[in-house]
């Protein structure tokens, strides 16, 4: 059976999704999950709510994507450290990476997973669950 793909309707995305996700990550990192309101997020990302929902899903989905980006980027030092040949080298890399990640001169201070968890009350259960899964 032969199928043909139909062209995707709609106009092309008018923003850089990678850059928008990076900005959302920073908002979540600075404000925590509950403190990051949709207006905070869309303003920082430079997009409308409609564009945010179309590109990233709801706030919970956006947070999960930002957490994944954080894990692969700023917090990726843990995985990289485990590739070191000795326990001492692993410990040095973890310590060095943690200091660099949490004390960046131009970025949010602290750890996204801690900041996000601190601000995750009843309304932030989805963020709490994502952070618990991340730590496992």
The gross shape turns out to be globular
Structural class based on helices, strands and sheet pairing: mainly alpha
Rg to the nearest angstrom? 18 Å
| Mean pLDDT reading | 83
Helix content: 55-70%
What is the CATH class designation of the domain at 17-75 and 111-135? Mainly Alpha
Write a brief structural summary.
With 136 residues, this protein is mainly alpha-helical.
Please tell me about this protein's structure.
- The protein is an all-alpha fold and about 140 residues long.
- It has a domain of about 80 residues: Homeodomain-like (Arc Repressor Mutant, subunit A), CATH 1.10.10.
- The chain is about 65% helix and about 0% strand.
- The termini are far apart.
- The model has no long low-confidence stretch (mean pLDDT about 85).
Essential attributes:
136 residues; Arc Repressor Mutant, subunit A
What's the layout of helices and strands?
Elements (H helix, E strand, L loop, with lengths): L16 H19 L2 H8 L3 H8 L2 H14 L4 H5 L5 H16 L9 H7 L6 H11 L1
Helix pairs in contact: 1-2, 1-4, 1-7, 4-8
């Amino acid at each position: 059976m032969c199928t043909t793909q139909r062209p995707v309707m709609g106009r092309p995305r008018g923003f850089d999704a990678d850059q928008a996700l990076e900005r959302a990550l920073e908002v979540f990192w600075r404000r925590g999950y509950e403190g990051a309101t949709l207006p905070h997020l869309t303003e920082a990302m430079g997009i409308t709510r409609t564009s945010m929902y179309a590109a990233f899903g709801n706030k919970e989905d956006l947070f999960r994507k930002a957490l994944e980006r954080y894990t692969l980027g700023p917090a990726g030092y843990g995985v990289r450290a485990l590739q070191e040949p000795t326990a001492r080298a692993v410990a040095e890399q973890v310590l060095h990476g943690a200091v660099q990640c949490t004390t960046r001169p131009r970025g949010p201070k602290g750890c996204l997973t801690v900041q996000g968890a601190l601000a995750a009350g009843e309304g932030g259960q989805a963020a709490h669950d994502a952070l618990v899964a991340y730590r496992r």
